Amino acid sequence: MVPPTKGQAGQSAKPTLSVLAPTRYPWRFNSPRHTRHRIETRNFVPMNYISEKLEGVTVLSPVPVRKFDLVHAFNRIPLGTTPFVMSFESHMPRGFGIEQSRFYRFMMRQLLSDRCVGIGAISEHARRIFLTSHKDHPSFDQLKHKLFLRYPNMVIEDRADRYTEDEQYPIRVVFVGNHFARKGGCVGVRMAELALEQGIPLEVDIVSTVEVGQASWTDPLEPGYFDRYRKLLALPNVRHVQNIPNSEVLKILRNAHFSLLTTFCDTFGYSVIESEANYVPVIGTAQGALPEFIQHQKNGILLPMDTTDIGEWKHIADDRSTSEFAEIHAREIERLAHSALSEIVTIMGDQNRYKAMRQAAYETAKSMFSSQDATVFWDEYYVDALNTFRNGRSHRPIARAHNRA
């Protein structure tokens, strides 16, 4: 830790910490983007490549050798001796099907140890899963004491919406996601097919490598099931691209009327933040964290979905190899495609309503996912957490409310 310096008025400057964090996409959304601290991101060992049972822990690269004040981890508990704060998106610790094992108990001891200075859920959905999962644990009160909520963030431009009614048609919908079926790509191409049949001027952009089947945990495994949906990628009102730079993805997104995330399973959905920050309402399913920041017919379209008590699609644990599951999945695609198209046509028929929806989407992003607000939170949290750790006291995380737009 760098010692504080004296300011012009004799006041101590705020301390600057050395923080270690993982690389990859999710952590960036859960980091202080304008921080005064020195944050170094390093590759981590994907222990799930060794065994799926080990995916709940990791080791960050020790090279170059350097001492860090704190580790800010995401999803995987960092092994070592440095104090850490843990951000997570669903289950913590990650140990699916091994909850009674010695290794799972080892992970729980890491969360209960003094090394763990805080456990940050990135949504109410994640917080609910954590509390439900550990409600019978003998140290539940200690776990709950460490738990706090902090939404992800991104840099949001301070700009006006440039949309005009001249851009009303054709209606442009964009889907982004490599897990094509899980995230809702099948719904997108089926919407395009329905629009052609009904003479609706709608175009769908699909940005995806079209990974289906075993690649995802929600897809039917029946042979040939996805052949029909792959063929729809060739429709005249569908444009399919893949492996393009993020700058190009954002360009497509900014020119869309709606983005599509009719997902069968998504814990958060970072694309929602990117969409709302660009005045683009999201069509999503009422599962995971999406109901926390998509308000139906106000800042987006939220389609109902049958879910469990923790907000997951109720068929997620079904046997995916059966024809019955394939039929359930296909019916759900049909329902979502018809509902989404009907909602879109109704909303686009009232341009004042649509423009208000765009504005509300942007205001949601500004109020809930501001990188400036997140930086203030994390910069002070790091210092408070580390001071508490060094003083040997039980850390009480800094709570912050997130107002819904």
Helix content: 25-40%
Tell me how many strands there are. Answer: 14
Distance between the termini: 38 Å
Note the total helix count.
12
Radius of gyration: 23 Å
Named CATH architecture of the largest domain = 3-Layer(aba) Sandwich
Order of helices and strands: EHEEEEEHEHHEEHHEHEHEHEEHHH
Structural class: alpha/beta
Q: Mean of the pLDDT scores?
A: 92
CATH class of the largest domain: Alpha Beta
Domain tally? 2
What is the name of the CATH superfamily of the largest domain? Glycogen Phosphorylase B
Shape: globular
State the low-pLDDT regions, or none.
1-11, 394-405
Q: Strand order across the biggest sheet?
A: 2-1-4-6-7-8
Report the portion of residues in β strands.
Answer: 15-25%
- CATH topology term of the largest domain: Rossmann fold
| Biggest sheet descriptor | 6 strands, parallel
Pfam families: Glyco_trans_1_4
Provide an overview of this structure.
- There is one protein chain.
- This protein is α/β, with parallel strands linked by helices.
- It folds into two domains: 18-153 and 371-391, no CATH class; 165-368, 3-Layer(aba) Sandwich (Rossmann fold).
- The chain contains twelve helices and 14 strands.
- The chain has a six-stranded parallel beta sheet with strand order 2-1-4-6-7-8, sandwiched between helices.
- Helix 9 (270-276) links the parallel strand 12 (258-261) and strand 13 (282-285).
- The longest helix has 26 residues, at 323-348.
- The radius of gyration is 23 Å and the shape is globular.
